[in-house]
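User: For documentation purposes, I need each entry recorded in a consistent format: the amino acid sequence on its own, followed directly by the corresponding structure tokens. There are two entries in this batch. Please keep commentary to a minimum and don't merge the entries.

Assistant: Recorded as requested. Entry 1:
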Amino acid sequence: MKKSIPWIVAVVFALWALSSLRMPRDQQWAVNEFGRLPVMFGGRVQPIDSLARNALLQIREKARANFEPWKNWWEKPKLILATEWAMLAMMKPEEADTWPVFRIDNPDVKSLLGLPGEATEKSDGKHYSWNQIAAKQDDLHREASRASEKEASLQNPYEQALLHLWNSRNVYTRLKNALGPAQGGDLEAGLADFNPKIEAGRVALMAQMRGQQFDESALQWLSEHLDTPIMVPAPAPASAKGKRTDGWKRMTESVVHAQGGEIPHAVRAYAAIANGYRSGDAAAFNAAVLDYRTWLTSQYGPEARKAAQEYRFNLAEPFYKSLVLYVVAFVLALVYWAVPGAEWLRRSAVAVAIVALLVHTVGLVTRMVLEGRPPVTNLYSSAVFIGWGSCILGLILEKFWRNSIGVVVSAAVGFITLIIAHHLSLSGDTMVMMQAVLDTNFWLATHVVVVTLGYAATFVAGFLAITYIIRGVFSGAITPDLSRGLAKMVFGILCFATLFSFVGTVLGGIWADQSWGRFWGWDPKENGALIIVLWNALILHARLGGLIRERGLMNLAIVGNIVTAWSWFGVNMLGIGLHSYGFMSAAFWWLVGFVISQLLLIGIGSLPLRFWKSFRTQVKKDNTKPPSEPGAELAPA
């Protein structure tokens, strides 16, 4: 029976992961069908569901809207999907304005806006509605404008919170204005109200360009309606590959450019959808959505299919499910360490880790298909890829050393990197290239993949070293044989890391020579990649030369975690060089915390052997005297 438990565990978790692939049925309103409709935003076609999810992540750091955040989960607060919230914002903005979706944590910002800072019966003291904020919108704009004039690295928490809230306001306004004159459902009435405002905005813009006095409110109205998702498809069918992005228009532009009073079909379709929604007529809403989707499929099949594929990807949430599975595998492995004779626990941990890797792989490949790019294009995708590569390396180690250490490292690195990826997703769409200079070509694709595998391998070596130190100091599990085995693991992984880091750095130089006309420019990111290569080479040299033994190898491998984390994240926050992606204060403090934790582990690993429980256990078992030399290892002298 125990032999079949790992298979049963694997099947149960695989079925759980597969359960979300089935398209949910709409109950009353065709929410899922509406969420699958394609729009253009961020330079790519995406479903409305992705637009809504990314907006909510930026505004409230969650992919669902909670209309009663003051309630605990057991009180069943009113939660709705991102698409439902987007429908409300697009077609009933006056109602959406009353719901508390804006997260504000900074007390000084709350004071500026006159918001209650403490939790009450109808407020959790963190989330606020747009109506609560709008009264002090001018003060918010003034303070945010002042804060934006300072360099990001010099902004204090109050200024950073102001800019975050102003960005959230822009994201929300962009979504509310997406349907333009079709928002109210009555297109003719909408156009009658819309056209004079467009003309007033145009006049204000021309006056501004001439240096004359202009109507600021009219210009602001125009700018807000020209900065919206692009809802109207191109006037001609896209190519067979579905990569056409030109020709799409915003609602405002499509109305202005309509020739001979011919309003595009998409505008009328959205007006019919909004009319059904605002009137509470679910049947009319559902019919209008279905009609528009049928028309899109016939005229713009590639875009409609791509949006539907991404919508299914959003529902599947492969990286969230992988994260959960990594936690389960980690816990099972720890339980196995507590009950080392229960081999079925170790095999169950391996089975769950394999399922997690498969789900992780499906998510990674799906992202590649949707983007049409290699797996690493920005910091978010690099975090996902590092976790994936680390899991593979850990499971390979588990294949040769069946002691759950490989599973623990796989699960730990996989979980941590996916948590990092989640926090990176809070900045917006993760499928958009972060820098225009990173246009994909062969050398870039190979460079980022190979060098990121080098990052992953260095982290795996570092986390193996952490396992060695924690188990060695706090338990009696590290025997002389296991000590030597772990040293072989770390040494082999570091060889792999050195090779891939070196090759990846050289490939990056070739790409830089083609793109920027120089092979090496001492850019901070380039220096960071070089430091990883040199540090790994230093560890290998010290080990081969007999300068360090097992404990020294482990401590230096943990230093490799610091070096890699700095090269991966730290250099991006300097604001210097072609690879700099902007200063992120939150990430900076997390990076500092990570470095401090690694230094503490190195300190623990450097403790005299008399403080190591594994060493004391071994001495007692073998009845030997403690070795006196400072570099002595766990093995008897």
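Entry 2:
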Amino acid sequence: MQSRLATCALFLLVLGVVALIYWPLSKADFVWDDIICLRDPAWLRQGDAWKHYVFRDFCDWTNYFRPLAVGLFVVEVRLFDVAPGPMHLVSLALHVLNTLLVGFLVIAADAPSQIERRTLMLAAVAMTLYGLHPALVEPVAWISSQTELLLTCFILLGLLLNRVIRHHLARAVLVASCFFLGACAKESAVAFPLVLFLFDWIDPRYTLGRHTVLREILGKQLAVYAAVFVAGVAYLGLRWGALGHLVDPHIDAEALPPLLARLQEACFAYLTYWRILLWPAFDLGPMHVVNMDQFVTVDAFAIAIDALSMLVCATGIWFLRKRHPIGSIVLCVTVVLLPALHILPVAFDASLYHARYAMTAVALVCILATKMAIDSPLSLRPWRAALATVFLAWLGMAIVNIRVTLPLWADETHLWQWELRTNPKSVPAKASLLAIYMKQGNRPGAHAMLTALTPDIASCPSCLLDAAYLALAEGDLQQAGAMLDTLRNDSRLTQSPRLLHTFIEVNALLLEAQNDLPRAEEAYRDAINVDPLEPVAQMRLAILLWHEGKREEAQRTAELAVLLFPPDVRDVRRHELRQVFGGVAGDRQAPTQ
């Protein structure tokens, strides 16, 4: 009883500290993909279209299949009425839960009849190291990264249930369910079966010699492994049924870099993730664009990177053969990072790596390193003062790092200004700031970003569209037309419904400015056909219809447009429409969410 009370008190203290350090998130805003994927889409807020987007086409991504995560987004948006604060607190709650699971796994890995004080203290240390690890700021602070939090949660929960449940059938069903749910949160759960085996391999319950332990593990865990396999097949079947493919079919094999270049790229990313795990105090911005040309050539630096990567893996295998925890640490990290090493040619964005992809690896390192300390025959007493000093210094560094970084993730403008300071050549940062400044009406800032983007603007279709919109706002119809002509036959428009919709909408604005109202009306309707739930085109069509004398249709269109906007801007849009209509516009009440 005393051990349980001590465990509860200590664990609650650690969880409270983690929650307190991250509490400023309660006032954070939507940033980055949160805006276009969570705040703006009307299907998230109303109607039944979510049933389609849960399984495919979320945020216009053709290879995105994370139904559990998207389902959670739908629930949050509707429950909290598109308020970012409560959604950030859901992320924080998931992070606190994962921190708790780290502590439980440390205790379960030892599992004495009475929890020893040393185990309890080390479990609390592991929770602190995980909960306040600076590399985890991104996935905790960015709502869209709830996929990472869910993935880590189900992997840790599956490992814990595998350790504590004695009944074979119950253990098999529950562990396999965690694997299936983890995969439905993010594809990276593919690493779970190997991680599960690696944890079993060093499990002290299997006490036979190294050459017979595999037989003993299979004898006791065959039902679990079989259930996990069935769950994997079920997930693949569900993915195939939803997407029609397992891997993105649009990959251009001829455009892929040579195999040697991809190997060097993977080795570089692998060592970078180890650096993030062990020394995460810098380079934690949103983008990590690396010059990919360096991987095409072989030089002394590339050979050193490749050799060191191979050495790390070989060391892990050597220790694993001896059932030493170091082997499990190295190989668990390697396995969970494999989906992020660009071995498969799936480029989700321009970055080579992201700190958020290391989240599960951080948890496993904290658990396994603590287990190694618990199992070590060496006493920590002579080193207690030195270890406590190092731990407190690390803790202070981590807290300062988190508190400095959180405000940068809490605001869209601050986020991309931070990225631009870190990487002055970042095209995504400049493009994002261009869009932000235009939305704010900051034309000097927008022109500054356009000037900075001049060498790269042809590679940025959204930048060309923003430039055309800015030219229209300033009455330069010739410049706007030139920007649109640059994109008119661009294949990238057909690959992105969002870009195509924006192109048609800006073209409609140009036609309207040229006083070609019939063609402008037709263009607005085309934009609405591309995305019937996008409100801006609906609103502009309503205004155009009003000027054409089609008052009743304009009123109906305005009412629909207002309902499609996020709740926090509906009153502003109603006011804008009233000014145009000279009376009541868009006043129908929004349906109850």
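Summary note for entry 2:
Residues 201 and 214 are 8 Å apart (CA to CA).
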